[in-house]
Amino acid sequence: MHRSPNHFIRRCLLLGLFWMFLHPVCLMGQEVPGQYRETFSESFPIRKQQHLELKEYVDKLIAEQKVRSLSFFKPDFSSIERYKESLLPYRDKHARRLGYPPPKPVEGAEPRFVYVGKDSFEFSVHPGGHVFEIESNFRFLDRHLKK
Q1: Fewest CB atoms within 10 Å of the CB: 41, 53, 100, 114?
Q2: Among 65-74, 84-93, 102-111, 119-128, which range has the highest average pLDDT?
Q3: Burial of 50 (0-12, 13-18, 19+ CB in 10 A)
Q4: What is the dihedral of CA 81, 82, 88, 89, to 10 degrees?
Q5: What share of the chain is helix, strand, coil (3-state, %, to 5)?
Q6: Taking CA 25 as the corner, what is the angle to CA 19 and CA 26, rounded to the nearest 5 degrees?
Q7: From its phi and psi, is residue 112 left (phi > 0), alpha (psi between -120 and 50) or beta?
């Protein structure tokens, strides 16, 4: 059965009108009696104060980190060989932080994955929009279990 383009347009308009009237009704259903509400202009002073306090705190942390970073990394620039040697402790520390070298397998141990747990969360892109769910199964490779 072939339908005309006007039929499609009418359906879209009808769906749009239906959504336009249904959407506010759905949102009104979320109102809870006795729920605290205040206008933005009433809460603006405290929000501004919180913003300024947080900005001051973050600026202080950044300034401290700059000083710490500049005093931490001091390679030797006198020659290429000394420069390479002076970087070795930093490279070793970074490698340990990343878990390198990987642990060696224990003699007689059988590697296997062990189920640790499961987690999931949902988030909405915008109110009334699609809800996405992400689920993760946490496992780890246990190389050190005896048979």
Answers
A1: 41
A2: 84-93
A3: exposed
A4: 170
A5: 50, 20, 30
A6: 85
A7: beta
Peptide bond into 101 cis (omega under 30): yes
pTM reported for the whole predicted model:
0.35
3 state SS of 79: coil
C-alpha R_g of the chain: 30
Helix (H) or strand (E) holding 82: helix 80-98
Beta carbons within 8 Å of 73's beta carbon, 6+ residues apart: 90
Is the pLDDT at 136 greater than 70? The verdict is no
User: What average pLDDT does the segment 11-40 reach?
Assistant: 69
